[in-house]
Amino acid sequence: xxxxxxxxxxxxxxxxxxxxxxxxxxxxxxxxxxxxxxxxxxxxxxxxxxxxxxxxxxxxxxxxxxxxxxxxxxxxxxxxxxxxxxxxxxxxxxxxxxxxxxxxxxxxxxxxxxxxxxxxxxxxxxxxxxxxxxxxxxxxxxxxxxxxxxxxxxxxxxxxxxxxxxxxxxxxxxxxxxxxxxxxxxxxxxxxxxxxxxxxxxxxxxxxxxxxxxxxxxxxxxxxxxxxxxxxxxxxxxxxxxxx
Length: 244
Prior knowledge:
Helix 1 (2-23) packs antiparallel against helix 2. The protein is α+β, with helices and mostly antiparallel strands. It contains seven helices and 13 strands. It is rod-shaped. A hairpin with a 2-residue loop joins strand 5 (129-137) and strand 6. The protein folds into two domains: 1-53; 84-234, Apoptosis, Tumor Necrosis Factor Receptor Associated Protein 2, Chain A (Sandwich).
């Protein structure tokens, strides 16, 4: 806007000088008038060239801003935070490196096999408390999260869920089963695992997991420890594709 104002004033002022000098009769024109006219022409050319340069520079700056703006706002939706609830960890990374992060940084153990038993000790610890283990089978890694928290004040509950360290599409190919078995009593929970790309807090708040109140947890515990049987199976479609 400022460049346009300078251009208009320069054009009108110098144009008026040129008109006055060169439009008058030749007989009355002196050498000073000729010099003034030449200076006005030079000023007019300078104003024109400066305005073109300023407009071009402004356009280039705007183009640079438009081209760099998307880079400033890009956020990779596949970056996930650390899934270990036992530590306050600010790590973020892609799903492919979650297993190595949990093993190297937090020393989380991996249990192998389609069917395993996870023993959660010290169930008497006050809420909130978390137990976590990785389960490797069928070419994938799964994460068992057992959480003790108070959903209602003074009434702690236990929440257990399995999450696939992979995408939601991959998680749909599996079924997990959690089983408690003690004193001729058996309790089973079977569901499709969630992906670690989803938040474990939302899984627990939605109640899409095995939920035990304190009395039920004590019924299946032995000396303050809770043994949870874990079994992972592939869907029929996924199993058929794997055989092919």
